[in-house]
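Hey,
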Amino acid sequence: MRVANQSGRLTIVADGVAVDVEQASGCRFSPDPQHIFDRWDEFTAWAATVDSTGGVPVVESELGAPVPRPGQIFAVGVNYADHVEESGLTLPDAPFVFTKFPASIAGPYDTIEHPGGSVDFEVELVAVIGKEARNVPVSQGWDHVAGLTLGQDLSERDLQLSGPPPQQFNLGKSFAGFAPIGPVLVTPDEFDDRDDVEVSTILSGELMQNSRTRHLIFPIPVLVAYLSSILPLRPGDLIFTGTPSGIGFTRDPKRLIGVDDELVSRAEGIGEMRHRFTATDRPHPLTTVSRSTNHV
């Protein structure tokens, strides 16, 4: 099953058309795409019976984030060995986890404001939680995943890496629009191998990243088990699973995103996102703050 957010309404994409869930279900389900995850099992059972007759065309410009208001967004750093190497780090013993704030969510074809500084790309497969997970064993990790979507963990490296440890990972990766996802959510059963999905980044026509999720150091079931051993994962939460090598910041010379660039992200079995960037006349956050001389 492929689920989309078209014009702010929950739809099922089948046979090349979008079926409005509220209308097709006789108002059994809300049109709000976020609400469906609390009733995921009930929804998927009903969706298996849906007739696509009467569906409307899928309009790219009307597609929004398939999970528009996640409660929690977890992101995993250095989760591909080649990315660990290019970052000059050592293989982690456990997942390295940070967060992206929910206000950073964007749709698959949105225009994103460039905040200035060193804006980088990180293509990632994103797991969407469909059933609350707490202390879940690895063997049951996939049972709590509603589906997969494509994401970009956009990062402004100057803010992200500013100051002494702990650095500003969460803020540097959470500017408005810095968590675009889409274009659809795809249930795991739709993939030939849900543990081996190709992902790639193309920046203004140049291939920058290309890998497969079979190379993840900590695969999705491990991430679900690890995170759920610490706190509950709730329906509609997101896990950005990590990016492969090829990011712009570690290249020599660096290749970062400018306001004239087009960023194309792709995931096998899910589709393609395309983003343009606009300049801002606001100063970069690092230029607007200074340390107070008043200390208690």
